[in-house]
Design a protein that fits this description.
It contains seven helices and eleven strands. By secondary structure, the protein is α+β, with helices and mostly antiparallel strands. The longest helix has 21 residues. The protein is globular, with a radius of gyration of 18 Å. The N terminus is likely disordered.
């Protein structure tokens, strides 16, 4: 189930979910960090379905908390209700309902009610995985030693760096980092990116909030993911590294390793 983890609670043991010819070994965890008094990230590692997701509330108020909890519970419920049918259409519909519920929840609150949402779900036969992306949490894939960022940040900073409006380390880029163009709870209810994400034996996937990706550079992320530890140990190493780098934000990570299904002995 989705949950918030306090700073001193260990990462839960990894578990496996079978999808056709593949087995997904999954673990996730979250830390408060050193800056905020509470954790406004939300994590879901499904105990039965091949579904993982992270959400990051915008700000540190009640709207952040309500948005994260509402978005995650709604999205997960929509995926479960439609299972085993899963695809781009179903995920667009699930996200639309999530947008609606978060907007409704925010009507009673004075401040901004919004959050990011990044999810990975595999079809039951294991032939296809899907990513859902709104905001600036991220999904990375490590394949054959190459770590790639698969999702796009929906921020003004991303656009500015992509089009050369300012250097990545400039004050302009730093300010634009907090200008989200798409998120759950946006008044225009923008659609998510829904991306085909084929799963291959040997892949390692990382879903994380910006408390991880902003504090750990590319090479550090790659080295930690490539160490081939148990996923729970990898998550623990990632979260500990964010604290070592300052713990400036809530940090949440889910690691998924793709294995072949072990045949049942006859």
């Amino acid at each position: 189930m989705f949950r918030r983890r306090p700073l001193d609670q260990p990462v839960a043991a990894a578990h496996r979910v079978g999808v056709g010819r593949l087995s997904l070994e999954i673990a996730g965890g979250s830390v408060v960090g050193h800056h905020y008094p509470e954790n406004f990230d939300v994590l879901h590692v499904d105990p039965e379905l091949p579904l993982v997701a992270v959400a990051d509330g915008m700000g540190d108020g009640e709207g952040s908390r309500v948005a994260g909890d509402t978005a995650m519970s709604t999205f997960v419920a929509q995926v479960r209700a439609g299972w085993p049918t899963i695809g781009a259409g179903e995920l667009h519909a699930a996200t639309a309902e999530t947008q609606l519920r978060v907007r409704q929840a925010g009507t009673a609150l004075a401040g901004l009610t919004g959050c990011t949402l990044t999810a990975l779900v595999a079809e039951p036969d294991g032939g296809q995985g899907w990513l859902v992306q709104l905001g600036d949490s991220r999904a990375y894939r490590l394949r054959d030693g190459l770590l790639e960022l698969i999702t796009v940040d929906h921020t003004m900073a991303w656009l500015g760096m992509l089009h050369g409006w300012w250097p990545a380390t400039s004050p302009e880029a730093a300010r634009a980092r907090y200008q989200l163009l798409r998120y759950v709870g946006h008044p225009d209810r923008p659609e998510p990116d829904v991306l085909a994400a084929p799963l291959r034996t040997g892949d390692t996937w990382l879903l994380c909030t910006d408390g991880v990706s902003d504090q750990l550079d590319y090479h550090h992320l790659r080295d930690l993911l490539a160490a081939r530890r148990d996923p729970a140990q990898t998550v623990g190493a990632l979260l500990s590294a964010t604290l070592d780098e300052g713990g400036d934000d809530n940090a949440t990570a889910v690691v998924v390793r793709v294995h072949p299904t072990v045949p049942t002995p006859r």
